[in-house]
Amino acid sequence: MLLVPSSSGLGHLVFSQRIRGSNPLGITYMNKISSAIADIEKKWFNLLYEYCKKEFSKVNLASHDHTHHRRVWIYAKQIFIELESIGYKVNVNNIEKSIIAIFFHDVGLTRTINEIGHGVESRKLCSQFFRQNLLKTPEDFEEVLKAIEKHDDKEYKSIVYSKKLNRDNIMSILCVSDDLDAFGELGALRYAEIYLLRDNNLKTLPERVIKNLDKRFKNFLAVYGDLKNLVKEQKKRYLLTKEFYKNLQKEIE
Ligand SMILES: [Fe+2]
Ligand SMILES: [Fe+2]
Prior knowledge:
Mean pLDDT: 88
Bound molecules: fe (ii) ion
Oligomer: single chain
Structural class: mainly alpha
Strand content: under 5%
């Protein structure tokens, strides 16, 4: 069946895949999961993105603004698609719950820039958003709220990374996708902004970043290390950020 890409104007965010051998005319077909993602984006993306953008327009925090939330969502989609490609049956309800959790997870940083506690603020803002807009909440909304609240909780995250949960559970998808946005050139810049805001010590910055960076990459491998394409791409980005901070460390010694 030929499925037409989403008409929501989010074509750049919709992953489409060619089904080998079935489209001699080069027509792009979308597989089942891409189609489900497109439907979910059509329903939620603009609403959540605009809300997030509005909240971050009130503060100066480029590292965690609405574009961070959008990138995290893009990584989440990659994980869902790769999980499906290795035969894992992704629960569509989890995709819908994930987009909501992702677009709210750091909105609490507009109220506090503290590492611990911004999740609680984000949770409050998410509940408020659904209440004020009279929106129907997805089934088991508490799971969404809990993921938002606990994404900054180190102890809770250790459960996520211990592989005890389903691979498409909201907390793992949110935390790992969030971690992936710490890599690359932009990741290097994001670290500098938030770490210097929290502790204005340039001398210890490289050491602090490298420690955190290594932990994120290790966690990513523990949960999704078998997603070969994703690992290959993300390893390059992780190494790039690490190299940058290692060089910086030498320069400021
Ligand atoms: Fe956060
Ligand atoms: Fe984040």
